[in-house]
Design a protein that fits this description.
Structural class: alpha/beta
Shape: globular
Strand content: 15-25%
CATH class: Alpha Beta
Strand order of the largest sheet: 3-2-1-4-7-5-8
CATH superfamily: Spore Coat Polysaccharide Biosynthesis Protein SpsA, Chain A
Number of domains: 1
CATH architecture: Alpha-Beta Complex
Distance between the termini: 56 Å
């Protein structure tokens, strides 16, 4: 595949949308320019602003652009799961997560794809050396860093940016994650999949990215999304630590 050392062809970039009419045309054009060989799937949750209709126009003009029309807004996680299923049914070897608002720069996609040569999952990371965030207020940075730190320690995940949403998966890795029982809907979905990858011993690599806050449209981040992440990570973390204690006690009894 041109622009990548991963040795993998058939790359699908999944872009979930809800009211992203102002952004979708530009982001599709940037992806196609950055890595001309990839294909794009716009997974639209029946956007009231006509994002899906505009995506249909882009699809009609470019055979490498596809549209998945969903009945209603269900959250980020279900949209990605639907996009992954669509791609794997059609034989794509790599599935990429990318936001529609331009915060994930398509020009950095070759970096993620190249890193798949030695990985099952590549995370675009804001919080490793070389990574950065542009146009975020200090409060937003602190919330993001705190969320990642809490998830890392609660779940024992050795990832610096566990909440980031710019990712490239091998399809074989996705198939091993047990996607049928993923229930997380908001940005907690990102934590869920990263944790599953670590638990299954997959090769997870982080590469630095520059995250740029959206210029047009409204952010989908809200209090309910933050609460979902906090509750789910706390429950998962308690279960994880309980299993660790149980296993340690079992080993101790076996020794004695």
């Amino acid at each position: 595949m041109s622009g990548s050392n991963s040795g993998l062809s058939q790359v699908l970039v999944v872009i979930p949308t809800y009211d992203e009419r102002e952004n979708i045309e530009e982001i599709v054009a940037r992806v196609r320019a950055a890595v001309p060989s990839v294909e794009i799937l716009v997974a639209d949750d029946n956007s009231p602003d006509g994002t899906g209709d505009l995506a249909d126009v882009l699809c009609a003009a470019d055979p490498q652009v596809h549209v998945l029309h969903r009945e209603r807004k269900q959250g980020l996680g279900p949209a990605y799961l639907a996009g992954f299923a669509w791609g794997m049914e059609r034989g794509f070897e790599v599935l990429v997560e990318m936001d529609a608002d331009g915060s994930h720069q398509p020009e950095q996609l070759p970096r993620l794809l190249a890193a798949l040569a030695d990985a099952d999952l590549v995370l675009g990371s804001r919080w490793v050396p070389g990574g950065k965030v542009v146009n975020w207020p200090l409060r937003r940075k602190l919330i993001s860093r705190a969320g990642t730190t809490y998830a890392r320690f609660a779940l024992g995940v050795p990832i610096h940016d566990v909440t980031g949403g710019y990712r490239a998966f091998r399809a074989s890795a996705l198939s091993s994650l047990g996607l049928d029982d993923v229930a997380s809907q908001g940005y907690c979905f990102q934590i869920d999949l990263a944790w599953r990858a670590v638990q299954r011993g997959l090769r997870v690599v982080e590469v630095p990215i520059t995250f740029v806050e959206r210029v047009r449209g409204e952010s989908k981040m809200n209090g309910s999304i933050v609460r979902e992440s906090l509750v789910r990570v706390s429950v998962w973390g308690l279960s994880h630590r309980t299993r660790q204690v149980s296993q340690a006690l079992g080993r101790s009894k076996a020794v004695t």
